[in-house]
Write a structure and sequence with these properties.
The complex is a heterodimer of chains A (312) and B (261).
Chain A lengths: L1 E10 L2 E11 L3 E6 L6 H8 L7 E6 L10 H4 E4 L11 H11 L5 H9 L15 H13 L5 E5 L7 H16 L3 E6 L2 H4 L5 E6 L2 E7 H8 L3 E6 L2 H9 L4 E6 L2 E5 L3 H10 L4 E7 L3 H10 L20
Parallel strand pairs in A: 3-7, 3-8, 5-6, 6-7
Antiparallel strand pairs in A: 1-2, 1-4, 8-9, 10-12, 10-13, 11-12
Chain B lengths: L12 H17 L2 H27 L7 H30 L2 H7 L3 H34 L8 H29 L2 H20 L4 H8 L2 H10 L7 H25 L5
Helix pairs in contact in B: 1-5, 2-3, 2-5, 3-5, 3-6, 3-7, 3-9, 5-6, 5-10, 6-7, 6-9, 6-10, 7-8, 7-9, 9-10
The chains are: A alpha/beta (312), B mainly alpha (261).
The complex binds adenosine-5'-triphosphate and magnesium ion.
């Protein structure tokens, strides 16, 4: 498992990771979610001892990664797929890796076949596509059959088949009892495979819960309603303490009530309804709601999250 | 949950170092640059050796041997070998390869130790190989006029190992410190060639005194015995001192810094 406590990294004036604490448990895929620049890669780099934390610590199976004698047998990681010598062949890249942890060289051929690079193994990495580099990085991560795996945006650059393959691989690794942490800036990418989600924004922890909880609990359920006299309807709904916001096109968005309750209130106020529906906040919406306040880059585009916010 | 084999075997530090050295060796020889620089060193050393050998053979009064000719040819040829050591040091930082490297060898002192041992050791060994092969070629071409006395050969090859090894240490140290091929190359050429040459021939006494403390002057003296005002007792500590100093500074950056490119 991975244990992160009070992890902080400051680059000059940029606070990339800010007092982050969470655990990544074995036997599950943990999605590590956050918008661009949230600090996901920086966190992973600190777990792997590449960057020195300003404060706090990250432990892998109870030890700092940088003390491991055979790191590849314990932790496999895919970070920047382009970060490798372009002049080496894929095979020699993995040969070097195998030598460092005393891994038998036949494992190199095995993982090359496993990731589908068998045919390109003797070509220089220079000529690899992004997806092929991604696969080579995954091959290196799998080389030592490790119990802990970290993948930083592994589906970047992969085609549809590749994405499906990665999902299957992550699932299998977790089902085998391994600890799997996979980062992404898109909820849609990890929602199907992640059992848990750790959400960060601007280096701070926003949520750490099961995917179900995050998708269900954090986006508040709403009811969309349209009726004959919008003002009367709104007043009738506000009377028992519901939050009502304009939903555009004369619609009202009601928070904290079910469609049945809204229907009953409208009936009691004698307002004919033209439309009444439950709004399950979309997954993307829930995610935006979580990170919207914590996004580093504020865009001027109207965010969909606003329609779900109470009017003031 | 499947029980995965738990890796409980203790691995000794010596074994980790040995494995890292094996990995460094593979790293070195699986990039084309290493082979190109080796070929360049061999061509320069043999070519200049054979060419200079014809002059020496034509003037028996000089009483030169093939080894004596090669001692001069090593001076330019060593730069190809220093470039080999230098690119071996910068490659990880200019390509981003440092990211996987440190994932596979997170114990940075081990990585530093293995890198220094393999790069400096290999470069010194290649220096001996290149010089030895070039001397045999000179001996073969220029027949009995330029002989290959064993005693002189042993001394020269030991000197080549020392000079090229120390030069490789300086180049690797600067590579790790500057993390840029161009930057490190400029620094090495300045220290090993340009500054000793210009300061050594300058009109000021202080400039000439300063030149004597630069690694390039001592390297040339150890190989060729020129300029005569130096002594072996001074020159050896100078070349070793520069190498050690550069390796300490470069090593500290590798040990302490973030794994930036
Ligand atoms: N070496 C560095 N020097 C200075 N700032 C850095 C460095 N590395 C990262 N940062 C900054 O730290 C913050 C977090 O970056 P990080 O790469 O960890 O984000 P991320 O969550 O991985 O984003 P993305 O989804 O775009 O990959 C950013 O503001 C980034 O600019
Ligand atoms: Mg990132």
């Amino acid at each position: 498992m991975i244990r992160i406590r009070g992890l902080t990294k400051r680059y000059g004036t940029v606070l990339a990771v800010d007092d982050l604490s969470f655990d990544v448990e074995p036997g599950a895929v943990t999605g590590f979610l956050g918008p661009n620049g949230a600090g996901k890669s920086t966190t992973m780099r600190m777990v792997l001892g590449l960057d020195r934390p300003t404060a706090g610590e990250a432990l892998v199976d109870g030890r700092p990664f940088a003390t491991l004698a055979e790191p590849l047998r314990r932790v496999g990681a895919l970070l920047d797929p382009g970060a490798l010598h372009p002049g080496r062949t894929g095979r020699s890249h993995l040969l070097v890796a195998a030598r460092t942890s005393g891994i038998p060289l036949r494992r190199v051929e095995e993982v090359l076949d496993e990731v589908g690079l068998g045919g390109a193994a003797r070509r220089r990495v220079k000529g690899y596509s992004l997806g092929m580099r991604q696969r080579l990085g995954i091959a290196a991560a799998l080389l030592g059959d490790p119990r802990v795996l970290l993948f930083d945006e592994p589906v970047n650059g992969l085609d549809l088949d590749g994405v499906r393959w990665i999902r299957g691989l992550l699932r299998r690794l977790a089902d085998e009892g391994r600890t799997v942490l996979v980062s992404s800036h898109l909820l849609g990418e990890v929602q199907q495979i992640a059992d848990r989600l750790v959400v960060i924004g601007r280096g701070r922890l926003i949520a750490d819960a099961t995917t179900e909880e995050i998708l269900g609990g954090l986006g508040r359920p709403q009811v969309r309603v349209r009726g004959a006299r919008a003002d009367d309807l709104a007043a009738a709904l506000r009377r028992p303490g519901l939050t009502v916001a304009p939903g555009g096109d004369g619609d009202l968005l009601v928070e904290g009530a079910t469609a049945e309750e809204v229907g009953a209130l409208a009936h009691a106020a004698d307002v004919p309804l033209w439309h009444l529906s439950d709004v399950r906040p979309s997954l993307e919406q829930a995610y935006l709601e979580l990170t919207g306040v914590a996004t580093e880059f504020v865009t001027t585009a109207p965010a969909p999250v606003r329609t779900a916010e109470p009017a003031r | 949950m499947t029980a995965l084999p738990i890796d409980a075997r203790p691995v000794s530090g010596g074994r980790v170092l040995a494995r890292t050295c094996a990995a460094e060796w593979t790293r070195l020889w699986t990039v084309a640059a290493t082979w190109w620089f080796l070929a360049a060193a061999a061509v320069v050393c043999t070519g200049i050796g054979v060419a200079a050998g014809s002059e020496a053979a034509a003037d028996p009064a000089e009483e030169l041997t093939a080894w004596g000719v090669i001692a001069f040819a090593v001076v330019p040829a060593q730069f190809a070998l220093l470039a080999l050591a230098l690119t071996a040091g910068t490659a990880d930082h200019t390509t981003g390869g440092i990211v996987p490297t440190l994932q596979w060898t997170p114990r940075r002192p081990v990585l530093l130790g293995a890198r220094v041992l393999v790069v400096v050791g290999t470069t010194a060994g290649l220096g001996v190989l290149v010089a030895g092969a070039a001397a045999l070629a000179v001996g073969a071409v220029h027949g009995p006029a330029l002989g290959l006395p064993a005693g002189e050969g042993g001394t020269l090859l030991a000197t080549v190992a020392l000079v090229v090894g120390a030069g490789a240490g300086l180049a690797l140290g600067l590579a790790l410190l500057l993390r840029s091929t161009a930057g490190a190359l400029v620094a090495v050429v300045l220290l090993e060639f340009v500054l000793p040459l210009f300061l050594g021939n300058a009109g000021f006494a202080w400039a000439r005194a300063l030149a004597e403390w630069l690694p390039g002057s001592s390297a040339v003296f150890l190989l060729t015995g020129e300029p005569a005002q130096l002594s072996t007792a001074e020159a050896v500590p100078v070349v070793l001192g520069w190498a050690a100093g550069a390796l300490v500074l470069g090593g500290l950056r590798l040990l302490r810094g973030d794994a930036d490119r």
